[in-house]
Amino acid sequence: MRAAAPAVLYRSAAQMPSMEVVNSGISSCLWLVSTMRLPPPAVVLAAAASDDRYVTGAGTELAGDALRHLSSGIPHQSRKENLLSTVIDVGGIKVSALNDGEVHLPPMYYPGLDFGAHPELLQADGTYHIPVGCFLIQTEGLTVLVDAGLGPSTISFPGDIASAAGLTDPPESIAAGGLLPGALAAAGVAPTDITTVFLTHLHADHIGWVAPGGVLFFPNAVVICGAVEWQTPPIAPAPGELEGRMGLAVAKAAGVLRLVDAATVELAPGVSAHHSPGHTPGHYVVSVSSNGENAYLLGDTVHHPLQLNDKGISFLSETDPERALRAREELLTALEGRNVSIGMIHFPGLDFQRIATANGRKWTTAR
Ligand SMILES: [Zn+2]
Which domain holds residue 32? Predict the structure, then answer.
């Protein structure tokens, strides 16, 4: 077979110059991988589709090559700096917040948030910096990772977003991942120890370590996500999302992707996922209960601390902002005033919080 070389991801067939899609039974090509050196017409591959079909035969080999080339420029080593790890004990179940990296968002990503009234939120580059968290749950015999970070990639700050946001000196990247392996090692956990990867939803900053470069990063884990997330891929994917979705296609092809649609799904004894749509249609939150103690991991239902008391703040990539608000308020109301540790994946510091209700709702650090 001809060597595949510098691979390029295209978002649609129309973008691909003088190439022809070799369609091996795939009805809808959602992600197209093309190898630039291959002359037309022997060209194109598609990986994964909403109907669960895949490129087969030579296509699969080509896809593998293309994925390897895609990942070849990406450093897989983890950086040691900025490793965050907050650990709590929930009735004998250990829950750790681990950081994979950082996202740099212009104010427009938080419709309704008056950054003018909160200038302290913005860095000198004009963006709001948030971590890309994951949660590790260690219980007898099972090690569950909730969300899989951005992966070993750095996504340059898109010029069109900088112009739209009026940023004259934007940060180099809009998102940078890669810290999770180091954070896991610091927690004494190897990728082979992970038995379950549960994805609250399939945005790029939650799926990056499933199979970076087409190789399963957690070789012994089943990967679980909401079926509707898988079945409705993004029409206008955010940067990094296509690569992450390809990792999921690899998990699917390896037979380790489990799609769920129940309102509640048990992930381990005392650990359950609960459907909480709005941010995305198949978004889930996770509860941990043991010996009378409780924790909740809210995924992206709460994206900013100020949403605790301001119902007017949403997040740009929410597929259904009204439903997201309903889901958020239901959860915040259910958790307020209770002795429940709450983990939010994008809260600066990644500390577990509680909601006090003495004089209105207030976040307090859970210890
Ligand atoms: Zn997120």
Answer: 7-72
